[in-house]
TrEMBL record:
Pfam families: HTH_3. The lineage of its organism: Bacteria, Pseudomonadati, Bacteroidota, Sphingobacteriia, Sphingobacteriales. PANTHER family: HELIX-TURN-HELIX DOMAIN PROTEIN (PTHR46558:SF15), TRACRIPTIONAL REGULATORY PROTEIN-RELATED-RELATED (PTHR46558). The keyword DNA-binding applies. This is Helix-turn-helix transcriptional regulator. The keyword DNA-binding applies.
Amino acid sequence: MGIAEAKNHIGRKISRIRELRGMKQEALAIELGVSQQSVSNIEKSETIEAKLLAQVATILGVTPEAIENFSEEAVFNIINNTYHNTSSDNSTLIASSLNYLPTFNTTDKIVELYERLLDAEKAKVELLEKLLNK
């Protein structure tokens, strides 16, 4: 199989988008009203009919064109802009991208957001007290 064929494999693209959405084959099967084995077969298919593609796209929350034009490279660009990529080998990035840590400390960000919300609430209270005292 050549590189061009691999990039146009609709079934694999559906599989990757489903995985990125955190959806299991069984969930997609239930939504489509088919067996899990049917979803497995769809994901092994290089092409699928337009009507089925449209149904799958709707369930996955994307357009049929998004599935057709989906590329791992685009996803990696997004991941790499959000996460540290310690691997120069993209094949290991596929398997381990979910284990990467954000480039920021999430606890610090939550505390920062909480403090900003608290400051905003304090400012509202002060303004209301001023208005009431007038």
